[in-house]
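BUG: 3D viewer hangs when loading the predicted structure for this chain

Environment: internal workstation, default settings.
Expected: structure renders.
Actual: progress bar stalls at 90%.

Input used:
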Amino acid sequence: MKRNMMKNDFKPLLIEQLSDALCIEKESELLLPKLQSVTTKESLKDTLQAQLVTVQSSIEKLEALAEIVEVDVLNANCKAVKIIVEKAHDYLEADTVSDAGILSHLERINQYKSAVYNSAIRFARELNNIKLQQELQNLSNHAYNMIDRLGRIDSDQSDERAINSL
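Structure tokens produced before the viewer hung:
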């Protein structure tokens, strides 16, 4: 049986997305310095540092947004998020850790962030909360920009390998 969703039906969905967003940002804050310490490529280290600064800012913004919309996201259950981040932690414990592997895990994390932010934006729109929608769009843009930046690092590595193989 299909039913029309009422506006209040979107609030729990928004809370879930905000909780996931805050969780992945907090988990990223713990993970990024570890990734940075094992990478060998200077441009990747710089990107990881830039992402850490962005993540810290995103955490502050998400906590403020949650307060504004009066939702408790601080004690969220983050099972899906933790699985993604645990894979990156497991990778760091592997015998061989490469910059390409680090990039792979970062891209996965940032793709998940983008999906979470896009869903939250959709629910904020349904709730007619324009300010929240705009703030979430800004956070989503940061995730997309990081995905683009990571992609360019990967291209730089491919170019480097191609040149070295000549």
